[in-house]
Amino acid sequence: MFPSKNLIYQFKSTLSLGLPLIAMTLTQSVIHLIDTIMVGWYGVTELAAAVLGTTFFFVFFIMGSGFAAAVMPLVSEAVAGGKEVVIRRVTRMGMWLSVLYAISVIPIIFFSGKILEFLGQDPELSNMAQTYLRYVCVSMAPALIIMVLRSYLSALERTTVFLWIIISSLLLNTILNWILIFGNLGMPELGLVGAALASAITQIITTLILIIYIIKDKELSKYAIFRRIYKIDWNVFGTVFNLGWPIGLTWLAEVLSFAGTAIIIGLIGTIPLAAHGIALQIVSISFMFHLGLSQACTVKISYYLEKKDIDSLGKGIIAAFLLSLMLVMLAVLIFLFLPEQILGAFLAPDDPSRGLIIALGTTLLMMAAIFQVFDSGQVMILGSLRGFKDTKVPMLMAAFGYWVVGLPSSYYLGIYLDFGAPGVWVGLALGLAVVCFLLSLRFKFIYTMLNF
């Protein structure tokens, strides 16, 4: 039996929307990767401080990104209903919430040194990280506004232009790093502060370019999202807030879970931590593909839900999940048959620990081949549930899986039973499996409750 025309259309449509979203997530990851590499070229101490600072910043950024994520299904729904005023108000309130959130957390970021010391970090590194964060913190609001505008454009399926803007910001950030970190083109050598300034300037310029593009574009100008930007619509404000904060906490639960595993493996030793870090970086790149597809799922489900088109909604979900499964199979093959080549790319050929790290990293990638199924499954289901505007129960399920099952299992298997890093990853896989299972039950319940 051949697939129906609608299913074939959904495959094409999902790819058309999903590929730019995937490319965007990958490009944003590469920006952080290049920052890390270039600061590492400047100095190891500066690199450690930058990693500490960016991790601290990212925790607050990911929490605030929930409001931007809430904009996507709400705008998509409004597009399906032809409600231009709602599109404008939702996007505007997403920006309002992002700016208010940024203002509330900037003081914490600005005085982060004592907090980092309280968390057991080296006082000198904490002070350096605080200096870095004092320059970077001004980029919190622009960075979150970029996320809101990305959701807005994605819901309108205008992702290609945003992708080119993000690629341009990658190039700008790299050039500014080269100038400000190392003191090229007659500029003073600013080191870590230069990296912070480069990031802040890039975020501000990218935000301005996006705003100008949206205002000048003939098709987008009809939505006039910046019209009366100073005016608060309290009803829409509450809608975006109630949908967004659980998304932010769900992301935070996952991020802190992975950070927790790094702390546990750090108790085992330096080589296991290095192998864990490299393997996790590889898995994170693979994860970005599924994240992009899940965002496409959010847009399509919201759209068809408003249209009350149950056939297209169902086939759109099938198409997205099948594409995700194909990517999982490809990743599994790469992890199982090319582990040494991938891991070796992260290590110097003459590194004395290279053999030990690759050996352990190969074991971890074999395990990653298994939990790829659960990791991709949970992010795809989360994206689908956001399309149904269901965020609070999934947040609780994610917190339970990561923090009640995952982290305790990782500690028990890795430390108490002395299985080392592989034991920690088994615990991580168990947590992801539980989250995936619980979310699948929630998805089945929501889907069967649809009443057209």
How would you describe what is shown here?
This protein is mainly alpha-helical. It folds into two domains: 16-232, no CATH class; 243-452, no CATH class. It contains 16 helices and no strands. It has helices at 5-42, 44-80, 84-110, 113-118, 123-136, 140-155, 159-182, 192-216, 218-221, 234-266, 270-307, 310-337, 339-344, 354-387, 392-416, 420-448. Helix 1 (5-42) runs parallel beside helix 7. The longest helix has 38 residues, at 5-42. The model has no long low-confidence stretch (mean pLDDT 87).
Order of helices and strands: HHHHHHHHHHHHHHHH
General shape: globular
Number of domains: 2
Q: With helices defined by DSSP (H or I, 4 residues minimum), what is the helix count?
A: 16
The value of Rg in angstroms is 22 Å
Kindly state the mean pLDDT as a whole number? 87
Unreliable stretches (pLDDT < 50, length at least 5) are: none
